[in-house]
């Protein structure tokens, strides 16, 4: 079986090495390494040391564990799909007057890492309607939402207003929260009974 090289700037060098080792171990042997296997592989006496690394990787969504705490194995095709793709980042490019071209990429950037801070807590939604056009969000766009994140006044959120979901900006007036459109054609939305936040928007994706 082929293996995948792990490239992730959010990982420490040691975390990246452990994740790469787990990936290679799974594909060579068909099952996941135990904490004892990892401790031996990295020359440490305590399984707690490698457990901390594994738990950190799990918290950030780079691997999963089963109910017994064992590292879950991923299918190779699934693993290819979830690993971030890093592309060269050029720029900056002027959106006003033209400037001299920058031919060398200053760094590489993974769109997944840029938009998605917590993969296990994130989801995508396709936008319908034009109520958020002044925020640069148009019908057909895909927004990246993160659930469980504490919403702040001014955030664009997925609000559940009296049992119905809508994409709006969270506002507050005289101690009361409400939802505001980014299009003057739409009124502010105040909950008759209950306003809940299902997710906070972290980015928008549009394909031309």
Quick gist of this model?
This protein has helices spanning 13-29, 35-41, 47-59, 76-82, 111-115, and strands spanning 86-89, 107-110, 122-126, 142-146, 156-161, 164-173, 176-180, 195-205. By secondary structure, it is of the alpha+beta class.
Instruction: Give the spatial strand order of the biggest sheet.
Output: 3-4-8-5-6-7
Span of the ends, CA to CA: 36 Å
In DSSP terms (H or I, runs of 4 or more residues), the helix count works out at 5
Strand content: 15-25%
CATH C-level of the largest domain:
Mainly Beta
- How many domains is the backbone divided into? 3
CATH superfamily descriptor of the largest domain: Umud Fragment, subunit A
Q: How does CATH name the architecture of the largest domain?
A: Ribbon
CATH topology of the largest domain: Umud Fragment, subunit A
SSE string: HHHHEEHEEEEEE
How many runs of DSSP E, i.e. beta strands? 8
Instruction: Give the CA-based shape.
Output: elongated
Q: Please estimate the helix content.
A: 10-25%
Content-based structural category: alpha+beta
């Amino acid at each position: 079986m082929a293996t995948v090289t792990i490239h992730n700037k959010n990982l420490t060098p040691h975390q990246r090495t452990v994740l790469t080792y787990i990936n290679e171990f799974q594909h060579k042997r068909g099952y996941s390494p135990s904490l004892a296997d990892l401790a031996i592989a990295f020359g440490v006496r305590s399984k707690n040391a490698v457990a901390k690394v594994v738990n950190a990787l799990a918290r950030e969504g780079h691997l999963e564990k089963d109910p017994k705490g064992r590292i879950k194995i991923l299918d190779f095709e699934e693993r290819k799909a979830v690993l971030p793709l890093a592309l060269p980042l050029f720029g900056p490019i002027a959106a006003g007057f033209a400037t001299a071209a920058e031919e060398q990429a200053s760094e590489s950037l993974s769109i997944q890492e840029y938009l998605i801070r917590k993969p296990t807590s994130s989801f995508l939604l396709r936008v319908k309607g034009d109520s958020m056009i002044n925020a640069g969000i148009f019908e057909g766009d895909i927004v990246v939402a993160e659930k469980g994140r504490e919403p702040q006044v001014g955030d664009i959120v997925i609000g559940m207003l009296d049992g119905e979901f809508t994409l709006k900006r969270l506002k507050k007036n005289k101690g009361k929260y409400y939802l505001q459109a980014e299009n003057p054609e739409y009124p502010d939305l105040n909950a008759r009974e209950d306003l809940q936040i299902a997710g906070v928007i972290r980015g928008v994706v549009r394909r031309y």
